[in-house]
Task: structure prediction
Amino acid sequence: MDDKDIFSNSTSSNESENKSLDLNSFSSGAVDSARKKRKKKKQGKQRFLKVFLTFMLVGIITVSIVAGSFLVYAFALVDGTMDVNLNDLELSFTTTIYTKDKASGEWNEYQRLHGEFNRIWVPYDKVAANDKDNTEYTGIPQQLVDAFIAIEDKRFQTHYGVDWKRTFGSFVNMFIPIYDSRQGGSTITQQLVKNLTGDNEGKASRKVREIMRARYLETHYSKETIIECYLNTIPMGNGLYGVEVAANYYFGKSVNELTLLECASLASITKGPSYYAPDAKDKDGNDIGTQNNKDRRETVLELMVEEKYITEDEQKAALAEEFKLVASRDMLNETAVNNYFVDALIVDVTNDLAKKYGWDEGHAAENFYSGGYKIYTTLDPQIQDAVDSVFSNAEAYGIKGKDGSQLQGSFTVMDYKGRVLGLSGGIGEKTANLGHSGFNRATDAIRQPGSTMKPISAYAPAIEDGMINYSSILNDTATRYNGWTPKNWYNSYRGAVTTQYALEISINTIPVYLVDKLGTQTSYDFLTQKLGITTLNENDIALSPLGMGGTNGGITTEQSAAAFAIFGNGGQYYKPTLYYAVYDQHNDVVLSNEEVEPTIAISEDTATVMNKLLQHVVYGAQGSGKGAGSYIPNMKIYAKTGTSNNANDLWFVGGSPYYVASCWCGYDQQQRISDQAIARKMWGAVMSKIHTGLEAKEFNVSSYAVERYYCTGTGLLATDACESKAVGWYTKNGTPKACTTHAGTPLGKPGDEPLEEESDQEKSESEEKPAESE
Result:
């Protein structure tokens, strides 16, 4: 048997050919089979790879088509420009009122006024902010900028408005959480776009517009400008916008005073103010802000370390710092009810804006509250407090009239350059803001001035004209003027009286006589052109209105105080003002009253003579304002009382060497006032308060004014033979001659030895008056 027979296998006796299997043929078949399997597997992988690559290619092509379509849409169809100037943003900013500290001369914030948006602009200067030796820089600190960039947009300094990595990552992260959500997809520039446009439309087209607009801003403005605008416009919770107001509210300080921890805290708020503000509360009033803000500000500090804005030591020091939260609206210097000065200020500034820029009243009023103005006012807070304390006391001064209504009043006090220091427009507690169309009695109550008209319409212009002097003898007698005869309040006539006496007891016939001699038009022009009184009308060009104050129009306490100021400042009229200057949010001057030139109403020696005459109203034996001197016992004052027909209006106007003030009292529905001294009492109550602690001072006396003895019988300069004499004051060219009725040696100045009368030649040499000093 052959070897191969051993391995033979016959399956049937009928088979024609036997098949046999040896080891070699078995081994070769197994290898072939394995090869075929591997080949099939490889082919399967190749087919999968081809399919995968095909899908990838299709995906890439699809994305390219979509991206291309997006770019075509974005660049061709979307308007990515913005009609906005970041260097002069026309947004709503808070207007701030400032007052000057009398001791230090520094300006202090007094009150803020705003519309819908409470926002104060603070500049950012990168160079100054990084200069540690620059102690004058009061803008946004660099640490605050760094904190916001670290948490909101860490690639802010390098991208061009859009951070594509973050944008794509934010999109993917919505479906697959690939990273934590500490940063959103919008850059700081994109957030600024949203803040400026208010575009919150929930469509993809809005996001496209935002992206294009962000790129537009980046190509037109510096990073420094963009971050400055962003930090000044971002919502910070509690109705606050911008980091300055937020720093005020949350920490009771200005933004330039913030610590590193406080910077981190503010940067934490923007993600969601209702959740991350340090004083945030849930719908049930439970505190959620304390912990939420703490966690996030720690994250901000961590990111600042990562971005190398601060060191780990600075981080540790900040975390160890006590977090002092204030969170008080008191820090915003807001008030629900303005005082009367602020109400008047709003009207003045609004009117001045409208006049200068050609705006209508509505636009000017809206712009006042949203223009971010800085108004440097003339207001003295201590004086205003004194005014308010007196005029809010309705129990003491709010006399009930016959119809049950309460007595009202107004008061204006100013310095001798027309700067209003305080005012009130009513008696009793003020409960509402007046607005632009409200009625502020200090500036709007046009009432008959009564006898307070006499010094400014008759006596001052008559002395200035040389018609009369301090001691001129005038005739108090019944005189008929076109069928009308003026009467005196004492229902009689006293015959020959001096100018001084006529003014002291407020005789009516004398000023009527003077106005008649001057001419009613001359008197009227003096009031309207020299003293700025704008509330009289043509019907007041008559003897009764001008001589006795029974006007058809009238006068306000603001106008009255400004007119009487000429008797204490050398004859200069200053138009009343409530502010020095108004600046916009970029510190450019918008309005200014700082270089106001006065009108020379009367000469300075006439002003001195009138001052001395009006002092007799207070200190004279029969003065109509007798007793007022006790309100300021260590200084002299000048004043004039006023009573209109039927005692419907009562006035007291006067000045000290420091201030001049006017007080009016009356009912809104005119009726007789029962207390005839009420205006003097209220004037005195305020003036005594504001002069408490002031150093005694005297009025300036013109070097041209002459003090001499006069004969009370003739009104001429007294001689040693005159039995009755008094001291009078005269202008340089208005000094009377020596008394000839009582022949004797002319007396010199009080305290001097008797002097001989000047010769005619000497008199002629002194006829021409020297030029007035500045």
Observations:
- DSSP finds 27 helices and 20 strands in the chain.
- The first strand starts at residue 8 and ends at 9.
